[in-house]
Amino acid sequence: MSEKRPVVVDLRFARESVVSALRSALQDRLVIDMGDPANADRDLSDAEFAVVWKPDPALFRRATGLKAIFSGGAGVDHILSAYELPDLPIVRFVDRSLTDRMSEWVLWQCLHHLRNGIRYAGQQRDRLWHEIAEQPEARDVTVGVMGLGVLGADSVRKLAVMGFNVIGWSRRPKAIEGIETFDATGLDAFLARTDMLVGLLPLTDDTRGIYDRALFSRLRRTGPLGGPIFLNAGRGGSQKESELIECLADGTLKAASLDVFEKEPLSSDSPLWSLANVIVTPHAAAASDVRALFRHVEMQIARLESGKPLEFVVDRTTGY
Ligand code: NDP
Ligand code: OXD
């Protein structure tokens, strides 16, 4: 073991994967795994880095010598909104595996809605052999993606490969080849063109509750799917769930695919479980691969130690 200062790991997910990945990760320094009860009262003041997902609130008071905090996921709302954080760089998790997984979820759900997946699943349950006559082509459907960051940018490209007409919206102007993009000022124009709305926004003060009735009412209603469809894999705090449920019931929205919810796990009495036009996945769109997470942490620490700046650092003023 070298002289290097320890890394404290407090990842409150996939415990077995964390334990297994730690057998070969961060070999050049001591790892203090807070999931191990033996470390519950350990002095953390010598820890240099923290790798966290929804950590113990006391962690940042105990680990007073940190140089940087690594989020165990792409989102950082789990710490920014819940803790008093020291003024340190916070690094998001950005990795090919996570990006691919998210794009898979987005394509899976968009194709499911395009190809009448909900109706065919119902027909199968009823043993009904009936081909639905109206089958729009992807090129007739406009998918509008809100959030064109690491995940949104990959999703729009892959949706375009599948033939969808794809547009995107982000706070600042963006240039993505083959994709028409809108900045914050172009929200109305963006929504008016969108048949399937995909939410890939981070949760910040500006995006909390952004998906509400007023927004859903501005989506295109004359598209080939018979009504707008909403997909959200960003954060549930961005959707006003009571209004979303009403919109799904009264036809403002034709259907939805939801991976994230205002409160998780989704309560067993939520109407979303049983609405026939809703697909629920349990915040599983793009889980972090723990081995890849530790590789990313090792890479970023190596950058720092060789005098290079950290990558994927959160802007504390915008909150993402
Ligand atoms: P990025 O930080 O790379 O991208 C965020 C995007 O959102 C940017 O395009 C940004 O605009 C845009 N944005 C932020 N605030 C606003 C705003 N107020 N108005 C308009 N656009 C805005 O994040 P990622 O793409 O890596 O991840 C996005 C989110 O996905 C994560 O924060 C997390 O919440 C969620 N996530 C969900 C997972 C799941 O399994 N369900 C897994 C992983 C992530 P600009 O480009 O102008 O800065
Ligand atoms: C993330 C997530 O932010 O899994 O990475 O939600």
Describe this structure in words.
This protein has 10 helices and 12 strands. The two termini are 35 Å apart. The relative contact order is 0.14. The mean pLDDT is 97. The chain is elongated and about 70 Å long. The chain has helices at residues 15-22, 59-62, 77-80, 96-114, 117-125, 150-161, 187-193, 213-216, 241-250, 290-305; strands at 7-11, 31-33, 49-53, 68-71, 90-91, 142-146, 165-169, 180-182, 196-199, 229-232, 255-258, 278-280. A 7-stranded parallel sheet has the order 8-7-6-9-10-11-12, sandwiched between helices. Helix content is 29%, strand content 15%. The protein has 2 domains: 7-93 and 288-305, Rossmann fold (3-Layer(aba) Sandwich); 98-280, NAD(P)-binding Rossmann-like Domain (Rossmann fold), CATH 3.40.50. By secondary structure, the chain is of the alpha/beta class. Bound molecules: NADPH dihydro-nicotinamide-adenine-dinucleotide phosphate and oxalic acid. The site of oxalic acid (OXD) has 6 residues, from loops.
Strand content: 5-15%
Structural class: alpha/beta
**Taking strands numbered 1, 2, ... along the chain, how are they ordered across the largest sheet?**
8-7-6-9-10-11-12
Number of strands: 12
**Overall mean confidence score, pLDDT:** 97
Distance between the termini: 35 Å
CATH architecture of the largest domain: 3-Layer(aba) Sandwich
Order of helices and strands: EHEEHEHEHHEHEEHEHEHEEH
Summarize the structure.
The chain has 320 residues and is an alpha/beta fold. The protein is 29% helix and 15% strand. It has helices at 15-22, 59-62, 77-80, 96-114, 117-125, 150-161, 187-193, 213-216, 241-250, 290-305; strands at 7-11, 31-33, 49-53, 68-71, 90-91, 142-146, 165-169, 180-182, 196-199, 229-232, 255-258, 278-280.
